[in-house]
Design brief:
Blueprint: E1 5-6, E2 8-10, E3 13-15, E4 19-24, E5 32-38, H1 41-60, H2 63-79, H3 81-92, H4 96-117, E6 123-126, E7 133-140, E8 143-147, H5 155-166, E9 170-174, H6 180-192, E10 200-202, H7 207-216, E11 222-226, H8 229-241, E12 245-249, E13 254-258, H9 264-276, E14 286-292, H10 293-309, H11 328-343, E15 347-350, E16 367-370, E17 387-393, H12 396-404, E18 411-415, H13 419-428, E19 433-436, E20 456-457, H14 467-470, E21 471-478
Parallel strand pairs: 1-5, 8-9, 8-11, 9-10, 11-12, 13-14, 13-18, 14-17, 16-17, 18-19
Antiparallel strand pairs: 2-3, 4-5, 6-7, 7-21, 12-20, 15-16
This protein binds 2-aminohexanedioic acid.
Length: 480
Amino acid sequence: MQQQLHQNFINGEWAKAAQAAPNINPSNTADVVGEYARADEAQVRAAIAAARAAFPAWSRGSIQARADLLDKVGNEIFARKDELATLLAREEGKVKGEALGEVMRAGYLFKFFAGEVVRQAGEVIASVRPGVKVEITREPVGVVGIITPWNFPIAIPAWKIAPALAYGNCVVFKPADLVPGCAWALADIIARAGVPNGVFNLVMGRGSVVGEILSTDPGIDAVTFTGSVATGKRVAANCAARLAKVQLEMGGKNPQVVLDDADLDVAVNVSLQSAFFSTGQRCTAASRLIVTQGIHDSFIKKLTEKMRALKVDDALKDGTDIGPVVDQSQLDQDLKYIELGKKEGAKLVEGGVQLKKDKQGFYLSPALFVDTTPKMTINREEIFGPVASVIRVKDYDEALAVANDTAFGLSSGIATTSLKHAEHFKRNSAAGMVMVNLPTAGVDYHVPFGGRKGSSYGPREQGRYAVEFYTTVKTAYINP
Ligand code: UN1
């Protein structure tokens, strides 16, 4: 069957691209989700020019129109949630239930920022000079370049596009080359919701072409990026060289602490979810399970039992708990780390093997290492797959020290029934987000998201805190 070619959206039109690439289902590599355009340099520059041209009218236009647009986008996402979740599971490989949750999250993000449009306020402060008034207001930052990863094909685009538009910016959006399906569907929804020409542009394609231009072209005022540390650093360096605003969300090596006094079921459930759900492909996934010695053996016993019960299969099949890894190169990386773990002396007690299913896909059984030390590479580098290691510690103090002994600082968790330890961990964990008796991954859509150290750079995303990145502050002095 002739596949429809999904084009880029530039200046209010679906623009013909010279190149395209297939979007492959990781649960079944014979299944092509669709053909998607790859933008060349001329298209990216045209999208930037269109966004610049649209900015004056959009940024000064009716805020009601902006709010209505975002609300309409949210409505359509909700109305088509099942279809979009199927597309998401098919192109990315997370299971249908998780995909549905992600689609709903995208809908709520648009609804939240539709409300924020009409809640923008400033401050009026008395000047130290009598009679003079000082007014502090926020203005849109300009044209925002949005670069998103493959692991959340609709939620991360939503949590960047919705605030960008809400606060009056124009957008040039580059989704991950691996998962353009949901991005294209979202662009189509935004286009049909009536976004003015040039205000929102979609340029699918390669990071080396599209991402590079977005971070270097002087027509882009700010770049928000979620992805790998290496690419993030490159984006930041490009932006710094021309003094453009930049926001990065990158990796994690998130700790899940389990204390002797934890409720064992809670500890096992949050660890299982944090480490393996969404195939471990979340920057908020917990990959270091730091367990005190009293509960260590019973925790491992119960966790491995639960792991064995997980069904790894086609993301769209009923009853699947864990979908495939996203592609061959990610699978190679996971397997490479599993070999490395063994070589470094860690003991693989469960999973970590490639699985054969009816269809050809990138299936890997969730892997658990025990007897690992904080110095091992598998406890230092982000693997980004269903691979976790247990580090045995003697007490809470050692657990906290090990938890913080990392180059990252996105999310951290503790399973405990002790208020004292929970409070102390909450205050002393060097992470942007701390979870008590909850998984490290799976965050709310209306509160700040972000981390410390090597995980994040620049202002927080989401919730009211998103205003910091998507606007710039103006201080006006008035002598009436
Ligand atoms: C979540 O855990 O709910 O790329 C979201 C990621 C993060 C998003 C995680 N930026 O995994």
